[in-house]
Design a protein that fits this description.
The chain is globular and about 40 Å long. Strands 1-3-2 form a three-stranded mixed sheet. It folds into two domains: 71 residues, no CATH class; 81 residues, no CATH class. The chain is mainly α and 174 residues long. The relative contact order is 0.14. Helix 2 packs across helix 3 and helix 3 crosses helix 5. Helices cover 52% and strands 9% of the residues. Strand 2 and strand 3 form a beta hairpin.
Length: 174
Amino acid sequence: MAHYEAADPISARELQSLFDRLFKSSYNVCLKGGAVEPLYEPATTSAPATIYFRADYPRSALHEVAHWCHAGAGRRGLVDYGYWYSPDDRSAQEQAAFFAVEAKPQALESLFCSALGLSFAPSIDNLSLPITEQARRDFERRIQQAIDHYGRVGLPKRAALFHRALMAHAKTLR
């Protein structure tokens, strides 16, 4: 079942096109949907870096682009930016580490969603571990602190370019 509906402000295909127009030639990176799991593969001598997102889900695309916008040059040279990924069954300590590294990318994702008029909900990304309400609130507070920080100092360069393009797209729909 597709995760895109006609009422959505942008399709996964449109996001791919917008992203590739902005970044493919200048950063040697492209965005591709249809993946079973998200993955970032750095560029090789014969292929650009590729950001894979789940299925045809615009929210997955925005989330993965947020990670790319947050990653520095060194991290962009590593598969999945050099981060570990653990599916469900994370321990409480692993979940705490997840919360620590996810706040800034999810803050960018929230801003990308807002630019398009999409709702945003933080991703806990661990269905097997009971997350306390306090831990959930703490994570949401970290995301809001990152959003506030970006509001004061501005978005990172790539995130700012993408955010402006999303806002321009949203204006064409009004």
